[in-house]
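INFO batch 0412 | record 1 of 1 | parsing
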Amino acid sequence: MTSYRSLKFPLILVTFCALTSAHAADKKAPPPKPANQYAAFDTHPDEHVTVAAEPCNDPDQCSFFRLQYIQHGFIPIRVIITNDSDTALNLDEVRMQFISANHDVVPAALPDDLNRRLFSTKSAMGTKIPMVPLTIHHAPVDKKITQDDEEFGFPGTTVNAHSTLAGYLFYDVHGLDDPPLKDAQFYVKMIRTLDGKKELFAFSIPLNKWLAASSHTATESAKPESQKN
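INFO prediction complete | emitting tokens
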């Protein structure tokens, strides 16, 4: 006999996931600031371009994502590119890499990489209720990943003159030394001018700058109001 509990649980799970997804969809990432206003950035004065990297290693700080990327070994990094030059830039062939303290070069994860880690084949196919010819179909995994990419990823590959473009990328730090951000670098290369005539020098951003700023912020937040700067 199929118990009431076995029927009820999948329905509650589906309802909970739907509510969680709707809640996440209502949240927005903060609007990007100019790249030099972030803790970790690299500026090329002669090229008039600045690139910043803003990781998120606390799920509460980037709860607008629909899925639990951090809990599954990925670190979201918001990349902010500010172009103060008079020439538009092209990101069609750009490479944005996370380089660990041990010099592991980690490229940005593809949707398939995220999908494989976050969801098993069984969950993607749906849950069959025991002894009942009924399948509860889960929300499409790729749809959630695609929605996060559409809302929080780069909206295009052109950085217009005197403008800022930003988007989140995900990096698989599962298996790297903990904490993975310590002594790591964020490396950006192959940014070109829109006409293709010039390639900018590579940008190298030490993530220790971000860690130091985050630690300072956490320390200040923990102080009584009377002791804060």
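INFO post-check: The chain has a mean pLDDT of 82.
INFO record closed
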